[in-house]
Design goal:
Distance between the termini: 12 Å
Radius of gyration: 15 Å
CATH architecture: Orthogonal Bundle
Number of strands: 0
CATH class: Mainly Alpha
Strand content: under 5%
Helix content: over 70%
Order of helices and strands: HHHHH
Number of domains: 1
Amino acid sequence: MRADLIWLLNFLVLALNDTPWGQIAPQVIAAAATDDEARGVITSFMKDRLTSIEEVFAAAAERGEIPSTAPISDIAVTAVAAPYFRKLVAGLPIDETWLESHVDMLCALAGVSE
């Protein structure tokens, strides 16, 4: 599960750091607060990311790696929201070291069995 999460979330980190999405994301997110079309774009984008993350946790639950009672949807939101908050709001770096720490926290929240 950890490797899957790092692999998936690394795409988001790279997008925010190294692609045009990282440059326009602040404007799209701000526009979403007042514009239905922009809200639709960001909602669709986030839904796809959340679904991918939820699938990783659901598979882990099926394998017995995490409890079936783990709050998968809430953890998925945390998984995706934290990089945006850290980069765009707090102005902190999102790099490999941070990503690994973030995934470790997500695994702990999910109750990963060692």
